[in-house]
């Protein structure tokens, strides 16, 4: 008869102290240094389908028309207020902000604006115009303060320029 040699199996003890110490230090560090994404939601509206009686006579119906070569500020009833040619330096956005500040001073209760864009206008340009229409930076008492201009934005398609009805198709 053969004797089986029995090895005494020792129970392995799991030592997780070092791992727990690492987690106690690492988890708070990662939480402190993590950047959490913040989503900003902007309420947008569609322009009304018709010129109904929703607006009182003489009231400003402000339109900012974003074209591929210019930004036009207009009153739906009164016509073009100002045309600002696009510039690479961003100067056209500063001019837009100045014109809108002057309009806000004349119509302080006005909150809504229609932003109408041509199909070939880039998304980035449209967002920059929307930012300039909503708020502006003012210097008051030596500090920069954000002032509200026209926060209620409606988006739509820009009307075609006279004499360019076929311009966007195939060219």
The helical percent reads 25-40%
Content-based structural category:
alpha/beta
* Tally of individual helices: 3
Q: How would a textbook summarize the main sheet?
A: 6 strands, mixed
Q: Which CATH C-level class of the domain at 61-157 is it?
A: Alpha Beta
Mean pLDDT: 80
Q: Name the shape in a single word.
A: elongated
Query: What's the gyration radius in Å?
Result: 30 Å
Poorly predicted segments:
166-171
| Subunit organisation of the chains | single chain
Sketch the topology as an H/E string, one letter per element: HEEEEHEHEEE
The largest beta-sheet arranges its strands as 1-8-5-2-3-4
> In CATH terms, what is the architecture of the domain at 61-157?
2-Layer Sandwich
Defining key terms:
3 helices, ExbD, Biopolymer transporter ExbD, two-stranded antiparallel ribbon, Nucleotidyltransferase, domain 5, 8 strands, 26% strand, transmembrane helix, transport, alpha/beta, six-stranded mixed β-sheet, cell membrane, disordered C terminus, 171 residues
């Amino acid at each position: 008869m053969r004797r089986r040699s029995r090895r005494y199996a020792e129970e392995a003890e799991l030592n997780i102290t070092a791992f727990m110490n690492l987690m106690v230090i690492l988890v708070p560090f990662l939480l402190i240094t993590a950047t959490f994404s913040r989503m900003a939601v902007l309420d947008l509206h569609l322009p009304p389908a018709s010129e109904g009686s929703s607006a009182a006579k003489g009231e400003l119906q402000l339109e900012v028309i974003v074209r591929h070569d210019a930004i036009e500020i207009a009153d739906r009833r009164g016509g073009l207020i100002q045309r600002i040619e696009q510039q690479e330096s961003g100067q056209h956005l500063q001019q837009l902000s100045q014109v809108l500040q002057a309009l806000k001073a004349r119509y302080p209760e006005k909150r809504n604006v229609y932003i109408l864009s041509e199909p070939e206008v880039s998304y980035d340009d449209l967002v920059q115009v929307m930012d300039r229409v909503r708020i502006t930076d003012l210097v008051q008492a030596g500090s920069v303060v954000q002032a509200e201009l026209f926060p209620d934005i409606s988006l739509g398609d820009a009307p075609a320029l006279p004499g360019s009805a076929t311009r966007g198709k195939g060219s």
